[in-house]
Amino acid sequence: MDRESALKVFESLGSSLRLDIFCLLVHAGERGQVAGEIAEALEIPATNLSFHLKAMLAASLVTVRQEGRFLRYRANVPHMLRVLAFVMENCAGTARNEGECPLGSKRAAAAVARVAAPNG
Fold first, then answer.
1. For the chain, what is the mean pLDDT?
2. In the chain, fewer beta carbons within 10 Å around the N or the C end?
3. Nearest to 59 by CA among 86, 80, 28
């Protein structure tokens, strides 16, 4: 996992509709849902859904498989778990390294240093 991949996931989930889609697909489990079922459940037009699913595919948040005329989408839970592990590993590393930010952001390192500074 790299920083850019993690950023794509969080940028994609910054949309409340995409978060709703992801949650719906997580609940659907391995069965997943075809695009029409997703659109109906969330009461959104198919064209709007298509736009959001394309962005989620680019971020690897969902997988898709052709089933005849239909596309079946599933939440890519293993990828999401890798993203969360990457973030947790780097956050824990930041706290241990006294303000050094393994993600490479000076802004994040400064914020961690402020939070980690002893009160007094």
1. 86
2. C
3. 80
Q: Is the pTM of this model over 0.85?
A: no
- For residue 12, count CB atoms less than 10 angstroms from its CB and return exposed for 0-12, middle for 13-18, buried for 19 or more: buried
Dihedral of CA atoms 46, 41, 68, 58 in degrees, nearest 10, equals 60
Long-range pairs of 40-48 with CB within 8 A, sequence gap ≥ 24: 42/17, 44/17, 48/17
Relative to beta strand 62-67, strand 70-75 is: antiparallel
14-62 pLDDT, tens digit per residue, is 999 999 999 999 999 999 999 999 999 999 999 999 999 999 999 999 9
Which segments within the chain are labelled E, that is strand? 33-34, 62-67, 70-75
- Report the distance separating Cα 57 and Cα 37, nearest Å: 18
Nearest to 63 by CA among 22, 116, 3: 22
